[in-house]
Amino acid sequence: MSIKQALKNTIPTSVFNYIRDVPWVIRDWTTKSPTGCGPIPSLKLMFDGPRDYELFLKQGRETLGFYKNIAGMKPDDAILDIGCGIGRKTIPLLDYLNSNALYVGMDLDRRGIDWLLRNVTSQNQRFVFLQQDIYNKFYNPKGALIPGKLVLPFPDASFDMVVLWSVFTHMFPEDIAHYMSEITRVLKPGGTLAASYFLYDDEILARMQRGETKSNFNHVLKDCRTTNPNIPEDALAVSRDWLQSVQDQVGLQTQQLLMGAWSGHTPPQGLEITNHQDILVAKKR
Ligand SMILES: C[S@@+](CC[C@H](N)C(=O)[O-])C[C@H]1O[C@@H](n2cnc3c(N)ncnc32)[C@H](O)[C@@H]1O
């Protein structure tokens, strides 16, 4: 186990995060952010993924390609991005979505939402952001809302597409199942859910045992596995069969599954960063 993982597993998350951010605050003082590429957050704010301007922009280009060519997003679609973070997958849509479109970004972390409101909504009123105080032991240990009871604050059949990037990978199976049911409710008939997961089956578990996967979900919990037994929401994996049964229950049909690099698969060209996790595209029946 690395020193970083050992610290993560033992000290309170808020203390870990504070220590983790210090070098990045110094980097922000001493580094110039790129210009002419749309709004871009500070390295300190990029705590939810790689803290690197080039990777931020590259992943944005990858995601836009995925939205257009694989998920079938149209310029006038209504999009809901649950767990939008700091907008890694939002910024690339600024030039793509037209004035008939709607983009709603939702997250439990106020820092990202505040930055997006100041830097995106202020320029583009069709991009809307809301923060909800949802409990998550890793991201929001004092959150008041229980994820398994959350009602998405939108009428039925509101969205053409719902996306969740690296969000279900921090949620327990019963909460994912509840979100799936709510997502299906707010999707229009024929609408698309694109989400990333850590998915396992017998073959992947065998690879994991041989040490051939990039993450080791060795700790077995109910219907899932984690890398961190103290804070399981740090990284959670679910089985492909379990996910299929939830999709069947809520009325979603798989369109495409892109297995991720984390378990030894080779992502398609142009999705090298984004397809580290498994990406599943499903349609509402
Ligand atoms: C790894 S980050 C990914 C952020 C963003 N989707 C991206 O790809 O850059 C996970 C995000 O999910 C959010 N999150 C975690 N649990 C959530 C929940 N139950 N509902 C909504 N958002 C959640 C976290 O606050 C965090 O911003």
From TrEMBL:
The keyword Ion transport does not apply. Residues 79-191 form the Methyltransferase domain. It comes from Granulicella mallensis. Pfam families: Methyltransf_25. Keywords: Methyltransferase, Transferase. The keyword rRNA processing does not apply. This is SAM-dependent methyltransferase. GO terms for biological process: methylation. GO terms for molecular function: methyltransferase activity.
